[in-house]
Automatic annotation (TrEMBL):
InterPro entries: Gln-synt_C, Gln_synth/guanido_kin_cat_dom, Gln_synth_cat_dom, Gln_synth_gly_rich_site, GS_Type-3, GSIII_N. Gene3D superfamilies: 1.20.120.1560, Glutamine synthetase/guanido kinase, catalytic domain. Coiled coil: none annotated. This is Glutamine synthetase, catalytic domain.
Amino acid sequence: MGQNVDAPHLSAGFGEDVFKGAIADKFLKEQGLSAAVLDDPSWVKDVATADKIAKAVLTWCLSKGVTNFCHWFQPMAATFRHGNTGQVQMSMLEFNRDGTTTYELKGKHILFGETDGSSYPNGGMRATHTAGGYLCIDPSSPMFLRDDALFIPACFVSYEGKALDEKTPLHRAHEAMSKQTARLFKHMGFEVAGAVNNIGLEQELFFIPREAYERRMDLQFTGRTVLGKMPARGQEGCDHYMAPINVQGKVMACMKEIQTQCYKLGIPLKTRHREVAPNQYEFAPEFGSVITQTDQNLVVMQICEEVAAKHDLACLLQEKPFAGVNGSGKHNNWSISTLCGAQLLNPGDLTAKSGNPELFPVVMAALVAGVDSYGDLMRLSIASPGNDFRLGAMEAPPSVISTYLGTQMTEYLTEFMNGNVFEYKPSVTPIPLGVDSLPVFNAPAEDRNRTSPFPYGGHRFEFRAVGSTQNVSLVNTVLDSMVAKMFSNISDRIEAGESAVAVAQELLKKHFKAVYNGNGYDPEWPAKADAMGVTRIDSGVEAINKFVDPKNVEMFSSMGVFTPEECAARREILLELYVGTVEMEVGCMIDMINQHAIPSAKAAGINASGLEKGAKECAAAIAKVHATEDAFEQAKLCRVLRLETMVNVRKVVDDVEAACPANLWTMATYKELLFVDTGKHR
């Protein structure tokens, strides 16, 4: 137990703006309930209980000066939307016929809502004349307050119940994983009620001077620079990585306020530090339920953007804001535990609680087989537009989907696969430092492998390739669906008369090629992976298209996560997001060339013909996209446009910037954008 230190600016307000625990208990007791009622989601099906909870919530809200409420949901492909979420705020005021007002919040108000869903991406799942969007409270994620509004986490569906959001499929996948875990474990003599997926999200981002940000159309509209010459200093010395945060600078003050706001919402941010690129930082919370952690991460991103503006900064969440320096990811640390607390990826814990040493290798065999069988879906789940610039660029894992297990785990599973079944007991390695006064360090069984997209370590897997701007719902929907399907397949074979161990051994023999413990940055690895049949998809556009592969549609359908129609719709939506992103980026590039680069060049007496030609090339390329009807073909053209045409045009513009006198260049330069809190002059 840690000491209860008196730090009112942090600890005293923790969780005060979230309706759970002691905060909720105080107000629920007035209605004859306790906070325990919120732990059982069945309360949403009892109108009388819902009314009592609503009364307690209303009293809480009024005590905090909150007089509005909304259902808070996660539309699909909301990458550029502030906060990545949707809401319609409603006043709690009721306007009486006698001219008076009263405050009202009933069970029906918090349980359900309805809004116009006509302008949200839907992939053809509804017509314009069927535009309703229906909201249903998510009882697994607590209600919270911001400013003068109550936020009610909710799912968002069409009139026919088709998922129009990111959260509903995540719930479906999580439930499927839970049921299939219980089913498999029962076959192996371990009765459990179900399982829960826990995650921890490392959020990377950039803070830049707001004045310079406001002189960059591309940053404001797209989140990344489409033009810009590298300064004389970048990240060559890695002098920013884990370096001290300037205690007198704007960023430290900004990060402190972000933490304070998050703590009030019960968001357990644990770490803050500089990352490797100039102006790049990271926040990371403790582990928690996949549903609440996803919700909380969306709140964190919104708070970061809003608080940054208060400190004359801009927060950039896009994966690759600056060419030439590292981009940002959002590592998805992922684990599963039973509802009774047995950790599926902790061999000692799972064996001790189940009494069956065969259970852990069966779980690992299912995961290895899942990575090999559904690596294309894992790649799809991280196919955010910004990730095109990161994956395989020596700053993020490659586009080859494999898993790292470490030497000890690999040797153990190899023995198991070959018929030697025994309990896995990983050992630590003592490392003396050669100094008598220093303690001996015990290294864990696995080293870190930051070049692997899905390494095992510390009783969890870490999906390292996730993009920083992403809502991680789809990422975890894929992982949970994959696990559910593999567990289901094993159970099917057990029920047909095979032994779990024999099935697991066969799976490992077939799919062990997905285990790669080497350097993922090795230039020779992608070709080796191709030869072995390991999933490799360099293009995010091609990955998105895998949503409608028959094996993937069957997997999602059989687990009750997506219908075939929903798979096709989400493919369409993700392709449209990619095309729309490139449309904005190329539009910015053309305008910035015409409105800034060409006038600056002419003022400096520099030949602008190359700039004029570049703008015309970009315009012709996007016109070709607009003349194409099929979404997949459009997206393929857009990928060439942004990764080839725009890159070549950028070189021309950046060369002109290098030759142009600084006082005549009207766009904020990398020199102005980077190094916000570095150096004594700041």
